[in-house]
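Before the break, one more example. Copy the sequence into your notebook; we will annotate it together after we see the structure.
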Amino acid sequence: VQDGVERLTIVSGQAALRYARQQDALLRAASDALSVTPEDLPRAAERFFTEWKDQQKRIKRMEQEIAKLRTSGGDGGATMVDGVRVIVQEVDADLKQLTNMLGAMTRDPEQPTVAVLGSREGGGKLLVALTEGTIAAERYDAVTVLRAISSHIKGGGGGRPTFAQGGGSNPDGLPDALAEAKSLLGA
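Here is what the structure looks like once it is written out:
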């Protein structure tokens, strides 16, 4: 349908009655699901959607804060190797969460970092990231590190020199993959 053109659906007779009943049933089901009257449904749906978006933003901020706390010395996990912070951790997270955590860990150019995160979710995931434009990126290549360790999870992967990701079919090999990453990075 073009801009400025509206499509009209015209029903009459029994078809109109069925259509009205279907619309009424949909309205009542939606109202019941949100525990509001049909008249309040549009406002309630808008409020719930706005709250949901706010919660998603809050969750993302909290995930980034967790990543910062995990690598700020609280639970270990981070070691310094010739001026580069090396982080190798197994994390219970999905791919999006892992990517967000890596972003938080490697964002600061004042703190050159190479980070390797692994998760058992979905058969085993490995992600490697480096702080761009720093000595970490000069010394290490994320794809090379990933390819060296991904055989432990019976997988592979790829990416670019500062960010690589891979997956496999053997999540039980994750501890060996992370141990090899530590050895490879000198941690």
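The first helix runs from residue 13 to 34. DSSP finds six helices and six strands in the chain. Try to locate both features in your own notes.
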